[in-house]
Automatic annotation (TrEMBL):
Gene3D superfamilies: 1.50.10.10. InterPro entries: 6-hairpin_glycosidase_sf, 6hp_glycosidase-like_sf, Glyco_hydro_100. Keywords: Carbohydrate metabolism, Glycosidase, Hydrolase. Belongs to the glycosyl hydrolase 100 family. Coiled coil: none annotated. It is an enzyme of class 3 (hydrolase). Invertase that cleaves sucrose into glucose and fructose. It catalyses: Hydrolysis of terminal non-reducing beta-D-fructofuranoside residues in beta-D-fructofuranosides. It comes from Prunus mume. The gene is LOC103331108. Its EC number is 3.2.1.26. This is Alkaline/neutral invertase. It comes from the Eukaryota. It holds the Pfam family Glyco_hydro_100.
Length: 571
């Protein structure tokens, strides 16, 4: 691939990049190759670990390969996956445009708002608070949330400011080691906090950290997604800076192993997916996502793949890598076969027979066709598809969830064909999923009697509000990354332009209400940090698509199943 406005050395390495390309030229680039593109001078091209098949890895871990020199334990950090990607910053700390155009006026305002949200602990920045809105009661919006910080961390990495991300990773790692107890029950050692805050004692002139592992959360649910986001951010830091020393720290290696131990423990499960309670992720209130929610499964898949890149090949790391490889094979097959829905599969489910018994059953989960909601038949385009919200015995949640589907694309849980189908669906159903303010956290909203049963009459999750079909600007960065990876930047540009027409004027709300996302959410905080950071990350990725490498992984070809829809529910 030739890169516009780039000087190339004789051996093909990039010597200098003054400006990557104009925004209009982005559509002509083969985006899949950006993930493999080294960004640093004079680095020898090596085969990326991302491109190695899991079957090759299994061979490497066989007993006859186990006697390799101990120095090989860090060899996975030597490939282009960890090449430094320099970021150009202006003297005021905001990135200058790589396209040659003046940045949008919102960009400077966004950076100023993001920097106001910084939290310091003993003189060092360690995160960003959820919102800087002083007009409302703070509740827990003055805390640093692990999931909320991810877009902030990515923004700082893309702007060449990795120190705050490093501090955040190390501080949350220290919190992981704390005793975690709710009433008389101890949580698993590997659980990461949902959030933390810094307490200042002016009398003693001291600062302490206080963490919430779910004991203060609504519903008292531990955050399943925090550990996955932590691993994903650690990989983004390593990819962006080329600094493998952080990931190689014994503390970080142990932290990853503890998180993975929670997820890879064998029990009564018959599926490779993770069984979760309601409210364990971004949708942190009762919304009927208990069971096997797509958001958690996609994050689980991505965290496993990132862990493969980060774990050392010592005795402890090698054992986990073997378990990860097996789980990834099973998880990818399960998700691609049973969670995937397109026009053909919907028609097959509509015609299912029930009460089948034996290993030859087609309707393996005994889903009753009469349980299919009416809306899904109109929502499903002839071309397009998506991963549905949940699959468990006799239950399929057909709702569309944005975060899970975007992460499926970025992690390559979705095959290239499925990724394109997801983008086809977003284009076909733009009014429903984007409306006037992108992007719906889920679609459609639940209402009336179903709302009373599923949410317990939750006054915050009324129809087309908050988690129940609300529109969340933070999802811009995930949509943009997915668009770039699939070669559809025009979709991201359209979404960003919609957001730019309102976000600054409305003071960066947390979410919008209404079927089209027309109204600022009834309980939405203003100056919501991840709304700001999500916009900045989306803008910077669209301007410089090479940033995509921080948060995207190429497909492992050995995990690709035969996608014949008529056979997708048979072994």
């Amino acid at each position: 691939m030739s890169i516009p406005n780039s000087d190339m050395s004789q051996n093909g390495n990039i010597r200098h990049v003054d400006a990557l390309c104009s925004v209009a030229e982005i559509e002509e680039i083969d985006f899949s190759k950006l993930l493999d593109r080294p960004s640093f001078l004079n680095m020898e091209r090596k085969r990326s670990f991302d491109e190695r098949s899991l079957s090759e890895l299994s061979v490497a871990l066989s007993p006859r390969h186990s006697s390799r020199n101990a120095d090989n334990s860090s060899r996975f950090f030597d490939h282009p996956e960890y090449v430094f990607s320099p970021s150009r910053t202006s003297f005021i700390g905001t990135p200058r445009s790589l396209t040659g155009f003046e940045p949008h006026p919102m960009v400077a305002e966004a950076w100023e708002t993001l920097r106001r949200s910084l939290v310091f602990f003993r003189g060092q920045p360690v995160g960003t608070i959820a919102a800087t809105d002083t007009s409302e009661e703070k509740l827990n919006y003055d805390q640093v949330f692990v999931r909320d910080f991810v877009p902030s961390g990515l923004a700082f990495l893309m702007n060449g400011e990795p120190e705050i991300v490093k501090n955040f990773i190390l501080k949350t790692l220290r919190l992981q080691s704390w005793e975690k107890k709710i009433d008389r029950f101890h949580l698993g050692e590997g659980v990461m906090p949902a959030s933390f805050k810094v307490l200042h004692d002016p009398v003693r002139n001291s600062e302490t950290l206080i963490a919430d592992f779910g004991e203060s959360a609504i519903g008292r649910v531990a955050p399943v997604d925090s550990g996955f986001w932590w691993i994903i951010l650690l990989r983004a830091y390593t990819k962006s800076t080329g600094d493998s020393s952080l990931a190689e720290l014994p503390e970080c290696q142990k932290g990853m192993r503890l998180i993975l131990s929670l997820c890879l423990t064998e029990g009564f499960d018959t599926f490779p997916t993770l069984l979760c309670a309601d409210g364990c992720c971004m949708i942190d209130r009762r919304m009927g996502v208990y069971g096997y929610p797509i958001e958690i499964q996609a994050l689980f898949f991505m965290a496993l793949r990132c862990a493969l890149l980060l774990l050392k090949q010592d005795d402890e790391g090698k054992e986990f890598v073997e378990r990860i490889v097996k789980r990834l094979h099973a998880l990818s097959y399960h998700m691609r076969s049973y969670f995937w829905l397109d026009f053909k599969q919907l028609n097959d489910i509509y015609r299912y027979k029930t009460e089948e018994y034996s290993h030859t059953a087609v309707n393996k989960f005994n889903v009753i066709p009469d349980s299919l909601p009416d809306w899904v038949f109109d929502f499903m385009p002839t071309r397009g598809g998506y991963f549905i919200g949940n699959v468990s015995p006799a239950r399929m949640d057909f709702r569309w969830f944005c975060l899970g589907n975007c992460i499926a694309i970025l992690s390559s849980l979705a095959t290239p064909e499925q990724s394109m189908a997801i983008m086809d669906l977003i284009e076909s159903r733009w009014e429903e999923l984007a409306g006037e303010m992108p992007l719906k956290v889920c679609y459609p909203a639940i209402e009336s009697h179903q709302w009373r049963i599923v949410t317990g009459c939750d006054p915050k999750n009324t129809r087309w509000s908050y988690h129940n079909g609300g529109s969340w600007p933070v999802l811009l960065w995930l949509l943009t990354a997915a668009c770039i990876k699939t070669g559809r930047p025009q979709i991201a540009r359209r979404a960003i332009e919609l957001a730019e027409s309102r976000l600054l004027k409305d003071n960066w709300p947390e979410y919008y209400d209404g079927k089209l996302g027309r109204y600022v959410g009834k309980q939405a905080r203003k100056f919501q940090t991840w709304s700001v950071a999500g916009y900045l990350v989306a803008k910077m990725m669209l301007e410089d698509p090479s940033h995509l490498g921080m948060i995207a992984l190429e497909e492992d070809r050995q995990m690709k199943p035969v996608m014949k829809r008529s056979n997708s529910w048979t072994c």
